[in-house]
């Protein structure tokens, strides 16, 4: 028998629209090797920005090489200072769609225990965004075959990909059937002003930092977060903006189109097309991401990055719970030949106990488990267990009726 263990089948349509520790992230950068400091196709764990500097990734190296590797990493640690991140350098000439075929890169990725979040920045442009998206999804699909579940791959939605004259002409990202991939289309104009070479970049580091600071069930665009880092606990929200360092005092799409030039209709269209960008609420300070859209249909259960992360966490937990029962005895009801109730109760209890952790972590509101009792106890077919999560919702907008009255 193989060591597949427990196969988790992904169900869709229930919403209409592991390892329980949070995110384990890697940033893939296009860069050159640095002797004795940074090898290509090798994963390094960074606990703080000083670890990147020790590897030769510095503000000065960004300037000298016209790269943004240090910038992206500095944003990760600025926004999520209490987490770590891994970094893998690949040649600058690499395209995002190439990564799935690079055995050295995949080996480096596999060397990161429990990796579930990928960011990619500074690579050579693909022919169009569709090639980049589908190529990265194929990478995630290949990893999933070996039970490495990638919650989200944050890729660089470069300005060069936005070839349309108007927002309505931009590529429709929801058509790519790539539920793991979340392109980011935002940039901080202050960074673009540093060098013309940066004009088409997208703020992958900022997005990755905002993901890492959140629980897996939180939306990238939430104005506040559930648990803030110590230095920002007194704040009423969790904005990208930092006046002291000059970060995110304004925002633009990755083609340089300023947020303030986007009409309400433009913003609505960007959301319909599945774009993640940065903007500001009128009359409210600070800049925030718009959402956590993935490149799949809006009516899919997995059209938001947090839903994929929740499913993946559940899949990891269930698989780890059931593997100890592989090749164990299945008691048979002597009258029917079906699975005996005691065995069903045992399996149900194990999975139920394990999934309670997700309820306590507020990843899900509740769950249901069903094991069909009319399954033959003696069988070469996999035994089927159906698990469904009750998901919490996300507030995308409020509509308030406000008026006057003579009395209350």
From TrEMBL:
Q: What is this protein called?
A: DUF2586 family protein
- Taxonomy-wise, where does this protein's organism fall, top ranks first? Bacteria, Pseudomonadati, Bacteroidota, Bacteroidia, Bacteroidales
């Amino acid at each position: 028998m193989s060591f597949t263990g427990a196969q988790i089948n992904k169900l869709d349509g229930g919403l209409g629209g592991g390892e329980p520790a949070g995110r384990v992230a890697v940033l893939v950068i296009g860069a050159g090797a640095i002797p004795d400091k940074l090898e290509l196709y090798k994963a390094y764990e960074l606990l703080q920005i000083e670890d990147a500097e020790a590897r030769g990734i510095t503000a000065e190296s960004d300037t000298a090489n016209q790269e943004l590797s240090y910038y992206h990493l500095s944003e990760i640690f600025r926004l999520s200072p209490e987490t770590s991140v891994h970094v893998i350098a690949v040649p600058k000439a690499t395209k995002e769609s190439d990564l799935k075929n690079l055995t050295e890169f995949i080996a480096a990725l596999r060397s990161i225990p429990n990796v579930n979040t990928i960011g990619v920045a500074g690579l050579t442009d693909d022919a169009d965004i569709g090639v980049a998206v589908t190529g990265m999804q194929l990478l995630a699909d290949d990893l999933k075959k070996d039970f490495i579940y990638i919650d989200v791959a944050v890729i660089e939605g470069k300005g060069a990909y936005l070839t349309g004259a108007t927002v309505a002409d931009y590529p429709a990202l929801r058509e790519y059937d790539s539920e793991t991939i979340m392109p980011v289309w935002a940039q901080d104009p202050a960074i673009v002003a540093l060098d013309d070479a940066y004009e088409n970049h997208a703020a992958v580091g900022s997005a990755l930092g905002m993901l890492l600071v959140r629980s897996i069930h939180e939306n990238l665009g939430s104005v506040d977060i559930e648990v803030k880092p110590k230095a920002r606990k007194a704040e009423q929200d969790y904005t990208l903006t930092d006046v002291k360092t000059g970060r995110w005092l304004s925002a633009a799409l990755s083609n340089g189109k300023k947020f303030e030039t986007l009409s309400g209709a433009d913003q609505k269209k960007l959301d319909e097309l599945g774009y993640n960008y940065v903007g500001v609420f009128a009359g409210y300070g600070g800049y925030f991401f718009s959402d956590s859209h993935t490149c799949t249909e809006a009516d899919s259960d997995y059209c938001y990055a947090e839903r994929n992360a929740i499913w993946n966490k559940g899949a990891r937990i269930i698989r780890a719970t059931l593997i100890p029962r592989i090749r164990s005895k299945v008691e048979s009801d002597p009258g029917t030949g079906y699975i005996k109730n005691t065995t069903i109760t045992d399996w149900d209890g194990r999975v139920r106990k394990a999934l309670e952790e997700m309820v306590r972590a507020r990843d899900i509101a509740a769950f249901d488990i069903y094991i069909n009792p009319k399954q033959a106890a003696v069988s070469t077919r996999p035994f089927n267990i159906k698990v469904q999560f009750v998901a919490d919702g996300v507030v995308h907008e409020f509509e308030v009726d406000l008026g006057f009255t003579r009395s209350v």
